[in-house]
């Protein structure tokens, strides 16, 4: 079902992207009128779908309509193994293969759409893993930055508690206190829930070991946000230092969002968090505009191109 626009707001429509023989479904809200200032690519977490970023439980909570109203095109994709690609990838894909498939889908999107200053990724939980892996293997176009919520590198739980196959794992940790969410969030959320693909579930516990090798190849600004009631990942000073240490990113920021649980974009705090994420995008655009001429020229070179 195609989501309805918020009253008087931007229209959100379904989209299908060819990605190396795999169809990637998603949702799109385009800046109107005129070209977008940039494209926000939203990447959902485990067991969810692209609609995670388009909450209609209350007006103003959708990242898609907020971003489009502020002059950005927002593309929320169903990760490989979810949505339209699930039938083609019944076991999902490894993180490295997900990154390649996402790049193929974004290549198709950028070939057909104006992207303004470039792409900026907002990602949640397991989607943050994909965002980092894709940034580490960047190709084509300008990647402005990454804004990641609900992801660390030091687990706050035992590996057997992580979400897994057939509903295995302590799923309650996704939410935190129920007071942090509008009542309609849980009714609407039932339509977003999808099985976690087998390869994703099996690879999940390996993330702390995979992270340093990926982080060393990430050369774009990154901001990490931890909800007040984040229950999967540690966010104490030592854990944040471990998250920061291997990153090759020129700028790394950390934020804590009060009155929020792990599923930030479905809660009351969604608009607050989305505004902060888009504020980080504004800072990335400002840094690009204010950079010395030589640095601006280098920034214009497609990612992955020889320099």
Commentary on this structure:
The structure is a single chain. With 307 residues, this protein is an alpha/beta fold. It has nine helices and eight strands. It has helices at 63-69, 95-112, 126-136, 184-189, 198-203, 207-215, 237-244, 270-290, 293-299, and strands spanning 12-19, 22-29, 39-43, 73-77, 119-124, 143-149, 222-229, 252-261. An eight-stranded mixed β-sheet has the order 1-2-4-3-5-6-7-8, with helices on both faces. Helix 1 (63-69) links the parallel strand 3 and strand 4.
List the helices and strands and how they pair.
Blueprint: E1 12-19, E2 22-29, E3 39-43, H1 63-69, E4 73-77, H2 95-112, E5 119-124, H3 126-136, E6 143-149, H4 184-189, H5 198-203, H6 207-215, E7 222-229, H7 237-244, E8 252-261, H8 270-290, H9 293-299
Parallel strand pairs: 3-4, 3-5, 5-6, 6-7, 7-8
Antiparallel strand pairs: 1-2, 2-4
- Helix tally equals 9
The helix content is: 25-40%
Biggest sheet details: 8 strands, mixed
Separation, N- and C-terminal Cα atoms? 45 Å
Sheet/helix structural class: alpha/beta
Order of helices and strands: EEEHEHEHEHHHEHEHH
Total number of beta strands: 8
* Morphology call: globular
The CATH topology annotation reads as: Rossmann fold
Largest sheet: spatial strand order: 1-2-4-3-5-6-7-8
Strand content of the residues, in percent? 15-25%
Reading off the top of the CATH hierarchy, the class is best stated as Alpha Beta
Mean pLDDT comes to: 89
């Amino acid at each position: 079902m195609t989501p309805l626009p918020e009253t008087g707001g931007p229209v959100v429509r379904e989209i299908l992207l060819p990605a190396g023989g795999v169809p990637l479904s998603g949702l799109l809200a385009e800046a109107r009128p005129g070209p977008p200032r940039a494209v926000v690519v939203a990447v959902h977490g485990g067991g969810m779908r692209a609609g995670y970023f388009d909450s209609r439980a209350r007006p103003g909570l959708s990242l898609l309509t907020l971003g489009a109203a502020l002059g950005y095109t927002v593309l929320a994709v169903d990760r490989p193994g979810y949505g339209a690609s699930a039938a083609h990838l019944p076991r999902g894909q490894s993180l490295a293969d997900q990154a390649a498939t996402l790049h193929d889908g974004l290549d198709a999107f950028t070939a057909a759409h104006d992207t303004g200053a470039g792409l900026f990724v907002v990602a949640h939980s397991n989607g943050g893993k994909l965002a980092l892996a894709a940034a580490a293997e960047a190709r084509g176009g300008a990647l402005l930055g990454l804004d990641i919520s609900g992801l660390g590198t030091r687990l706050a739980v035992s590996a057997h508690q992580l979400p897994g196959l057939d509903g295995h794992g302590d799923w309650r940790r996704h939410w935190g206190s129920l007071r942090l969410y509008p009542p309609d969030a849980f009714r609407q959320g039932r339509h977003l829930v999808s099985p976690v693909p087998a390869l994703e579930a099996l690879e999940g516990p390996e993330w702390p070991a995979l992270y340093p090798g990926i982080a060393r190849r990430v050369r774009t600004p990154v901001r990490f946000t931890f909800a007040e009631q984040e229950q999967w990942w540690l966010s104490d000073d030592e854990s944040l230092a471990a998250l920061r240490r291997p990153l090759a990113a020129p700028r790394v920021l950390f934020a804590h969002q009060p009155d929020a649980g792990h599923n930030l974009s479905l809660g009351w705090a969604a608009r607050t968090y989305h505004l902060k994420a888009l504020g980080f995008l504004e800072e990335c655009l400002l840094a690009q505009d204010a950079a010395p001429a030589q640095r601006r020229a280098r920034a214009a070179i497609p990612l992955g191109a020889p320099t």
